[in-house]
Amino acid sequence: MFEEERKRSIVQFVEQQTRASVQELSQQLGVSESTVRRDLKELEEARLLKRTHGGAVSLQSVNFEAAFPDKEDRFQEEKLRIARKAVELIQEGDAILLDGGTTTLQIAKMLKGFSNLKVITNSIMALNELKDCRNIEVSITGGMLRPDTMAFVGPMTERSLEMVRVDKAFLGTNGLDLHDGISTPNMLEAATKRKMIAVAKQAILLADHSKIGQVSFCKVADLQDIDHLILDSDTPDSFIRGLEALDVDFTIV
């Protein structure tokens, strides 16, 4: 089987099954697992599927959400640049809200130099990063824990958020589309993010270029509902022109 034919077969199999493991694809195609992994990497770069820990899923599945470790390993340099720009927006004395996610986790790691800050988060990972910071007052929302995101969501989380008002909320997203706005695969996650936007003076969305053009099951908000958007330099020009047409405030880093 030639390389292009093999890759076409991989995409067809993943789309038919919604998801597939490296082992399954290796057996199906009669090639080594290392060959499958190389093909999956190239197919993801071509935006024909999405790699996961140990396999791949179809981009057609709006319900898909990668586990936290899978997301943490992807686009690390872009996430660091976005997080650094976000931290530049924080001032001493601010009360800030950190959403669950891999980019917001990078913000948490960069807050240790502040001497007067209040942080509320629904992220166990962010809490763990900040728990020993003496000069940062850290609060956790509580609620129902989602293992995929290591973040609390649901009615208890929303009630906790109703009790606070923050200067800035930093949010992540699964999908970012000019027409369909901000989206995520989980209904409770979407409701929690909407509450975060509501309690913040400024809602700041962080998104690397892999999120652009993606649409997940549950809509969170329109792009115009966000006060500022931070994107990486691989953001397509067509998306930038769309943001300008919608009069959405954004920064490219």
TrEMBL record:
A Pfam family annotated for this UniProt entry: DeoRC
Domain of life: Bacteria
Key word Transcription regulation present: yes
PANTHER family: AGA OPERON TRANSCRIPTIONAL REPRESSOR-RELATED, HTH-TYPE TRANSCRIPTIONAL REGULATOR SRLR-RELATED
Record keywords, A-Z: DNA-binding, Transcription, Transcription regulation
Transcription found in the keyword field: yes
PROSITE patterns found in the cross-reference section: HTH_DEOR_1, HTH_DEOR_2
Lineage: Bacteria, Bacillati, Bacillota, Bacilli, Bacillales
Domain (HTH deoR-type) ranges: 3-58
Protein name as catalogued: DeoR/GlpR transcriptional regulator
